[in-house]
Amino acid sequence: MEKYSQFRDRATGIAPFLPVVSEPAGIYLPIYICLFLFRLPFFVTLCATYFLFLQWFPLGSLFKKALLWMIMGIPGIWWIDLQIDGVKKGSLAKNESRVPSPSNVIASSFTSPLDSLYLAAIFDPIFTVSYPHTRQVEYISLFGAILRALSKPKEFPSKGAKMTDIKTLVRYHPKRIIVVFPECTTTNGRGTMPFSPSLLATPPRTKIFPISLRYTAADITTPVSGEYWTFIWNLLSHPTHCIRVRIAEAVYNTSISPEVDKKFSTDALDSLGDESAISSSTETLTSLSDQDMTEEEQKVLHRVGEALARLGRVKRVSLTVTKKSEFIETWSKRKK
Ligand SMILES: *[C@@H]1O[C@H](CO)[C@@H](O)[C@H](O)[C@H]1NC(C)=O
Ligand SMILES: *[C@@H]1O[C@H](CO)[C@@H](O)[C@H](O)[C@H]1NC(C)=O
């Protein structure tokens, strides 16, 4: 594994691109094979029916969500552990302002094709792709978003991509939620990558909800591009999967409040004794300032990044999309 040491974050030791290896099936292997063979036809039929036909019909959001829940039900994703910052478990109905609602933005972690499927089943949002060097985003379909989780990282949008920005999407789709994956590419969920500046195009009064999705077992995350079969096998052969969903308090794209400011400076003091923490934060800052951001803007991204890392109980890493591309190349050579 040390061959991949260059793809480990120097400050934290986290390797966010290495695939999560499944527990050996052992004596359960025959059961897994049966489950897989039993579920596959249902799964393929339902997915094909939905994505080839039904999604194009005006069936109503509720009906579409129900179909998406069925797609998630087949592989046994039925246990979802939802927690919302500042809301006691079970008292969700009392405070709607803590959950994303139309014309809000979701900044989601990005580890698996299931991220988009789950978000679609709950919120029926608009999906976007972010790129590391632009504030614009690409508007894509749910199916496009699912495929993105399995496809190669891209530093720049391809020619002819439908580019827009969050401000425009919010203006033209006031009844929808906008989903942004600010890390631009998938990880195994063990670290949060530096963010694209795309979130900075959010209007100042629009709520940005950081949402972290974590899976147990984590082998249904897809940090390595192109591993369709491994994903489908892990998804369909295991009896059940659990999703842990955490929603943070909304962050706004505005200059920082004095309260939070104070907290930052204490954080900085706390970490003075810790050399690695300092090098990590300077690394993050240098990589961000490449992109012509003001200090205010970096703070906005910093707040969303900290929230996502806290929700996922992980650390922020400084490995970029370029690093991930290099990793994918090294990884595919290894297999040959
Ligand atoms: C819901 O939360 C908002 C903001 O946190 C707060 O202002 C409001 O009073 C809460 N409403 C209820 C019914 O608890
Ligand atoms: C978002 O906030 C940043 C910094 O606070 C600002 O530079 C940027 O213009 C804002 N974006 C929008 C669309 O208002």
TrEMBL record:
One GO term of the cellular component aspect? membrane
Q: Which GO terms describe its molecular function?
A: acyltransferase activity
Q: Which GO terms describe its biological process?
A: lipid metabolic process
The similarity annotation says: Belongs to the 1-acyl-sn-glycerol-3-phosphate acyltransferase family.
> Where do the Phospholipid/glycerol acyltransferase domain residues begin and end?
96-211
- This chain's protein is named Phospholipid/glycerol acyltransferase domain-containing protein
The record's section on PANTHER family has: LYSOPHOSPHATIDIC ACID:OLEOYL-COA ACYLTRANSFERASE 1, PHOSPHOLIPID ACYLTRANSFERASE
Q: What is its main location?
A: membrane
Question: What keyword terms does UniProt attach to this protein?
Answer: Acyltransferase, Lipid metabolism, Membrane, Transferase, Transmembrane, Transmembrane helix
Q: Does the keyword Translocase apply?
A: no
- Mind telling me which residue stretches traverse the membrane in this protein? 27-54
Q: Name one Pfam family in it.
A: Acyltransferase
Q: What compartments host this protein?
A: Membrane
Q: Which InterPro entries match?
A: Plipid/glycerol_acylTrfase (IPR002123)
